[in-house]
Amino acid sequence: MKPETQKTFFSRVYTIVRKIPRGKVATYGQIARAIGAPGAARTVGWAMRVCPEQVPWHRIINARGEISLRPATGYHEQRARLKAEGVHINRAGKIDLKKYGWKQI
DNA sequence: CGAATGACCAAGC
DNA sequence: GGCTTGGCCATTC
Fold first, then answer.
1. Hey, which CATH number is domain A3-100, 3.50.50.60, 3.90.1140.10, 1.10.10.10, 3.40.30.10?
2. Which of A9, A30, A62, A87 is 20 to 30 A from residue A37's alpha carbon, by CA?
3. Residue A49 CB closer than 7 angstroms to strand B?
4. Alpha helices (runs of H) in A1-105, residue ranges in sequence order
5. Is the CB of A41 under 7 A from strand B?
6. Over the stretch A21-72, which tens digit does the pLDDT of each residue have?
């Protein structure tokens, strides 16, 4: 494997995620592409599972604009945090990516 | 090293 | 809108 991958694939993910401004959200695939690993969206999810405190993990959602967590793993907390930042979630549990999506990539 | 795992994604019905 | 299928990828066992 490459030294870069070896160093910590996760640290790259965290670096990108920390750049997401308050009130904005990004998708797993978006993060994956940002670190030069398109297709590694699943791995990004894995990284979020062990994320440090400084990482705004709650701003990461799936490509459909929905919270990918299950009620038992932290869905409620994520929804509450997003709401606190002004991100509106409709009745179907979806977020308008065109409005809240992070277009910095 | 092979097989399983998971906060994914796109396409089809 | 909701479910299924096949494909991706790093990490873990």
1. 1.10.10.10
2. A87
3. yes
4. 3-18, 28-34, 41-49, 75-84, 97-100
5. yes
6. 999 999 999 999 999 999 999 999 999 999 999 999 999 999 999 999 998 8
